[in-house]
Design goal:
By secondary structure, the chain is of the alpha+beta class. The protein has two domains: about 110 residues, Immunoglobulin-like; about 120 residues, no CATH class. Helices cover about 20% and strands about 40% of the residues. Strand 4 and strand 5 form a beta hairpin.
Length: about 260
């Protein structure tokens, strides 16, 4: 009996000695019916889920939150998180990042959450980053005929909610056919994402090696004046707060 009392008193003293933040760790989120994440940046969709596995994962992320050792002075406000209760009521959170760390704020409570766990949760919602895959390049002429290009190389990166840049996966598009430039020289059309390059450099080569380097319009003029079969590389450089890097697209063309 005395031993039990001693253990109890020791536990009480330990609890008293713990910092208030440590005792208050976690948001104590009740059982949820669903949630919605809405990005606070351009080029992000909002996603919602009532999937029980996703909901439980989010509950765990919030309930295991901890007070940061040092609260960041000016973190980036990147998303709104809405929790839906079974009653139909909602609880609102703000999501922040700072140096790769992630935080959630609800009322007076500002807590650090696991960036890795949150990223894995959002990885199940590809639609959230739908505007940030590697841009595809197609060539569309005045007759609305489209030629696909392939990606020869890339170091393209895009930013996620944790504030870090990542290399996106991509599916290599098939080249439908060789571009016949007896037709008007086509326009460059970057699609799938609103990302637009800050600069474009074009290299034209034949079986002897590189024969031209310059702008897209200059490349068209060169090929029109010099009949033959060519391989063309279009290197697009991207600079933006949400994406950066370069992508080299390639296709073949001929001028009879």
């Amino acid at each position: 009996m005395k031993r039990a009392i001693a253990v109890f008193l020791a536990a009480m003293m330990t609890a008293v000695m713990l910092p208030v933040a440590a005792m208050a760790a976690g948001f104590n989120v009740p059982e949820l019916a669903g949630f919605t994440v809405a990005g606070n940046e351009t080029m992000t969709y909002s996603v919602e889920s009532k999937n029980r596995v996703a909901v439980q994962r989010l509950e765990k992320i919030l309930n295991s939150a901890a007070a940061p050792a040092v609260k960041p002075k000016d973190p980036n406000y990147v998303a709104n998180l809405t929790l839906e209760l079974p009653s139909g009521n909602t609880i609102m959170y703000k999501i922040y990042n700072d140096g790769g760390n992630m935080y959630a704020e609800q009322g007076p409570r500002f807590m650090q959450i696991s960036a890795g766990d949150f990223d894995r949760l959002m990885g199940g919602f590809r639609r959230f980053y739908i505007y940030r895959p590697i841009p595809r390049l197609t060539l569309r002429d005045s007759r609305d005929h489209v030629t696909e290009t392939s990606i020869a190389a890339n170091n393209y990166n895009y930013k996620k909610l944790d504030g870090k840049f990542y290399r996106p996966g991509f599916t290599q598009p098939a080249i439908e056919h060789m571009l016949d430039i007896s037709q008007p020289w086509p326009e460059l059309e970057f699609r799938i994402t609103p990302a637009r390059p800050s600069a474009v450099t074009v290299t034209v080569a034949n079986d002897t090696g590189t024969v031209f380097t310059g702008t897209w319009e200059q490349a068209g003029d060169y090929i029109k004046k010099n009949p033959g079969v060519y391989g063309v590389n279009v290197k697009a450089d991207f600079k933006h707060d949400l994406y950066n890097g370069s992508v080299t697209y390639t296709f073949s063309t001929f001028r009879a």
